[in-house]
Specification:
- This protein is an alpha+beta fold.
- The chain has 29 helices and 23 strands.
- The longest helix is centred in the C-terminal third of the chain and has 42 residues.
- The protein is elongated.
């Protein structure tokens, strides 16, 4: 072992610069891979940790709405009774109050935020413990201090510490304030100050589900103090006063529920667990799916980063092993065995890997504040630096093992090759000159170009061998990665810019109706509106089963003009026995165009023929469903079956002959608070959140490839000093020597462009086609030729910049000194 360590130290000292460069490349790629792995684990647990951190309320006592609206009590007696139950640790009251986004004397503002007003504690405590995003907590005795969520702050353009004026509705105005038409508030105006901005788990839902950009009254929440209630509360329009309860133990919930039923059952009181009226798994299904996409993307990114490190570093490492093996015959003559020679290479590689792993761990810790990404970043309860010792320890050991493994095969081959050799071994085999370099030498090209191409394509032999293959593989991989990332990003941008590709064939939607009686007057106004070219009612159905699977189904009923759904194959349903299905639904049912399915519902069963493959934009109707899931029926289907279904909303296409902005302004004026602009669905927005990962991976591969090229150029100048000295002796000027090195780098880049661009375009198209198919989208693949040409020019420029320092070293080479040392 002493001989192995002695030889390893000598080789490390002799090739310190090469080892340092290799360790830095390993540290860079490994660090990014480790931070992605740790970030994926952090993302995967973010929501669960956020829910745990915010869960301070174990149950809420809720009174029946019809009982509550006729009751003016402040629930003080009920609070005392609930607080006296043996299972209760603490209890406090909260009121749900309707406000107006502006004061009565100002311009009309259709937004009607819901305020949670605490009667005993600040209102936000009725929902648990939120994350404080900005500012500070409000003081309970201050009537004007408030907390707002991020949606409210964004919509009303307010920041922590700024004032915000709201109007209040009186109890007599409750019916109007809670209705679908905006009315001015008649209560007193309140000059509030935003003490802080907070985020609850529920605030993640619109982001994860891809909710529409709307002008409706869902404009975020306000959380007000007991001081506000004491000043304004008695005559405020409100739904109810609930009692939020903290139990001694969560296991006491059944006993507490029974005690409440025994005490208040005749008054319509019920106990609601956290996330009222909805099962938590269903409530956060969209958030979990968004985080799962982000986690999977980070894991894939980490795997690809590790593969790129192995691919690029192994080429250079293998070449270093072979170069070091030129001295193996001499070491054998001194008594070293084949196993010891392999051990020297493995120990040297393991030390380089250990140095790279240490750098990777440091980089992963330093970059940890960049994770999680997307929705998981918003759900992270402890943002900032995070040290995941499990991932970092296992990852560091894996990096050392990978680097040592990359050296195993070349070390074993080199040791076998040197078995019967004497003196200095030539490992490169017979000379194989490049035909391209030979052709250029006979053509009318500058000598610097011909010699630079030869240096780039001929690895040399023995002590003059250079890892040109590693440089070529690295540059091809970099160009391929950059091209594929650009193609994927361009296809995603084209999808977002093409609404029919994600199921939107309309310009806006009007209203959200529960009764046909309230919807039909709006329909008449839309039909007669001069800015509306086409209008259709979107009809929702009760739960329907198609071939035994529960599938969300809608129908589009024309009211004015033609507004067909987005169908990418076939046509929309035109008969009661026809149906169009999303791509994912078709695959899950095992059906194709022209097949028949059984549609079942409360009315019975009916056979329908699949006539189209559709892209559905479920929007706020069913936001956690992907565009490829669901079906579209013909509206005449309703006439065959006794189903009472009214329009959920009206879809509108504007008159293209009119100015769009002016038409939108008129519709907002004529239908205040009812206009919705449909954007990309949740899955597309999730893709947008991780769209930077392919570009980041491409940048990583390009950076490692540049390091590989730089290593090859430095090695070329060092190992071919004799050749460069002869060129200078024959009359080459300093500039010509530097130009030769530049041509060598340019050759790497040009060959990489010739091979990498076609491979990258194919990879990008394949990746986007697979993604669009999985989501059921209708977008086509886009090849961004201007971006690719810019990347090609950038590749050549980067290669020449990398060649500047080796070229400068070659310029300063002294022929006499170089030839004498040989």
């Amino acid at each position: 072992m002493g001989a192995v360590w002695l030889c390893t130290r000598a080789q490390l000292r002799g090739r310190a610069l090469a080892g340092l460069v290799l360790a830095m490349l390993v540290g860079l790629a490994g660090g990014i891979a480790l931070v992605a792995l740790a970030g994926a684990r952090r993302s995967d647990t973010a929501l669960a940790r956020f829910l745990t951190a915010s869960d301070t309320v174990d149950a809420t006592v809720v009174w029946d709405t019809s009982v509550e609206l006729t009751n003016r009590t402040d629930r003080a007696d009920e609070l005392a009774a609930v607080a006296a139950l043996p299972q209760v640790r603490a209890a406090h009251r909260v009121a749900f109050v309707i406000l107006s986004g502006s004061d009565p004397t100002g311009p009309a503002d259709p937004s009607r935020p819901i305020a949670l007003v605490g009667l005993d504690r600040p209102g936000h405590e009725a929902l648990g413990r939120p994350l404080l995003v900005a500012g500070r907590w409000p003081r309970p005795d201050q009537a004007e201090e408030a907390l707002v969520d991020e949606e409210f702050a964004s919509r009303h353009d307010v920041h922590a510490g700024e004032p915000f004026q709201v109007g209040t509705y009186t109890r007599a105005q409750f019916g109007q304030a809670a209705g679908g038409v905006f009315v001015p508030p008649k209560g007193p105006a309140a000059e509030l100050q935003v003490a802080g901005i907070v985020r609850f788990p529920k605030d993640l839902l619109p982001l994860a589900e891809g909710r529409s950009q709307s002008d409706t009254d869902q404009s975020g929440d306000l959380y007000l103090t007991p001081g506000f209630w004491r000043r304004y509360g008695p005559d405020l329009a409100r739904w109810r006063i609930n009692i939020a309860v903290e139990l001694h133990r969560p296991a006491d919930l059944p006993a507490f529920t029974k005690a409440v039923e025994d005490r208040f059952g005749n008054q319509g009181a019920v106990v609601s667990p956290p996330d009222a009226l909805k099962d938590r798994d269903l409530l956060f299904a969209g958030v979990r799916r968004a985080i799962a996409v982000e986690t999977g993307a980070l894991l894939l990114f980490a795997v690809l980063a590790l593969l790129s490190m192995v691919l690029l570093v192994s080429q250079t490492l293998g070449r270093q092993v072979f170069l070091a093996a030129t001295e193996d015959p001499t070491l054998r003559a001194l008594g070293m065995t084949q196993r010891q020679l392999v051990g020297v290479a493995l120990v040297r590689a393991a030390l380089v890997g250990a140095a790279g792993a240490a750098l990777a761990v440091a980089a992963a810790v330093a970059l940890s504040p960049l994770t999680p990404i997307g929705v998981a970043r918003l759900a992270e309860p402890a943002p900032g630096v995070a040290v995941d010792w499990l991932i970092l320890t296992v990852g560091a050991l894996a990096i050392v093992a990978l680097i040592a493994g990359c050296a195993m095969l070349p070390a074993w081959r080199a040791a076998r090759t040197s078995g019967d050799a004497l003196g200095v071994m030539d490992l490169a085999g017979p000379r194989r000159p490049s035909w391209l370099a030979g052709a250029l030498a006979g053509a009318a090209v500058p000598p610097t170009a011909a010699l630079g191409v030869r240096l780039a394509l001929e690895p040399g032999r023995g002590r003059t061998a250079v890892p040109v293959r590693a440089a070529l593989v690295g540059t091809v991989a970099a160009v391929c990665a950059v091209t594929a990332a650009a193609s994927f990003e361009a296809s995603l941008a084209h999808l977002v810019a093409t609404p029919p590709a994600y199921g939107v064939t309309w310009d806006l939607a009007v209203g959200s109706f529960g009764l046909a009686a309230t919807a039909e007057p709006v329909a008449k106004r839309l039909v007669n509106h001069p800015d509306v070219a086409a209008a259709a009612a979107r009809l929702g159905f009760p739960a329907m089963w198609i071939d035994g699977q529960e599938i969300p189904v809608v129908a589009i009923e024309p009211r004015k003009g033609s507004l067909p759904p987005a169908v990418v194959e076939g046509h929309e349903p035109r008969q009661p026995d026809e149906i169009a299905l999303g791509s994912i639904t078709l695959r899950s049912l095992g059906k194709q165009m022209g097949d028949s399915v059984i549609v079942a519902g409360p009315w019975g069963m009916q056979r329908a023929r699949v006539v189209g493959r559709a892209v559905l934009n479920h929007d706020d109707w069913n936001p956690w469903t992907t565009p490829g899931k669901g079906g579209i029926l013909d509206p005449t289907f309703l006439r065959r079956h006794p189903i009472t279904v009214g329009p959920e909303t009206f879809l509108v296409r504007l008159d293209p002959a009119r100015d769009r902005d002016e038409a939108m302004a008129r519709l907002r004026r004529d239908f205040p608070g009812a206009i919705t602009i449909s954007g990309p669905p949740a899955d597309v927005r999730n893709l947008q959140r991780i769209a930077e990962l392919p570009a980041l991976l491409a940048a990583l591969v390009a950076l490692v490839a540049l390091g590989t090229v730089a290593h090859a150029l430095v090695t070329s100048v060092r190992r071919r000093r004799r050749d460069l000295a002869i060129l200078k002796t024959l009359g080459f000027l300093r500039g010509q020597v530097a130009a030769t090195i530049a041509w060598q780098a340019t050759t790497f880049a040009v060959i990489a462009l010739g091979l990498g661009i076609p491979l990258g375009v194919a990879a990008g198209r394949w990746a986007w086609r697979l993604t669009a198919s999985q989501l059921g989208l209708g977008s086509v693949e886009v090849v961004p030729f201007p971006a690719i040409l810019a990347a090609a020019a950038g590749s050549i420029l980067a290669a020449n910049l990398v060649a500047a320092i080796p070229g400068w070293a070659a310029r300063r080479l002294r022929p006499a000194t170089a030839l004498r040392s040989e």
